Amino acid sequence: MTRKILFTGAVFGVLSIVLGAFGAHALKEVLSESSLASFKTAVNYQIYHALFLLIFGVIQSKFGKHLTKVIYYLCTFGVICFSGSIYFLIFNKHFQFVDMPSWLALLTPLGGVFLISSWVLLGMYLVKNVKSDA
Prior knowledge:
The structure is a single chain. By secondary structure, the protein is mostly helical. Helices cover 78% and strands 0% of the residues. It has one domain (2-129). The protein has helices spanning 2-25, 33-59, 65-95, 107-129. Helix 2 runs antiparallel to helix 3 (65-95) and helix 3 runs antiparallel to helix 4. The chain is elongated.
């Protein structure tokens, strides 16, 4: 599982750098200010969670298999749903790939719930299991 977590974190990191550069250069003249701000939010959340997965991949051996899988999948699907839906919505708005199904907009908050849940589970585990020096 460690390699899978680290690989996913690295892929998310690379993609966020590529998409961030693409947004800053190629899309700057194409997107409205609000769309560009949303795009930047998606990139930022993706890079934060890429780092989350890289750090989690290093420390996850202490967590147990089940909790490790739950945190990994919540974070991974959270990034895909949150950032991915924002990218899709913005590109589709400006380039009209497909007719937009109304339910697709629900993926963004669902992804946010998944991301929050991964942090909550990580925090609960750490508070419960990490001994304090004080």
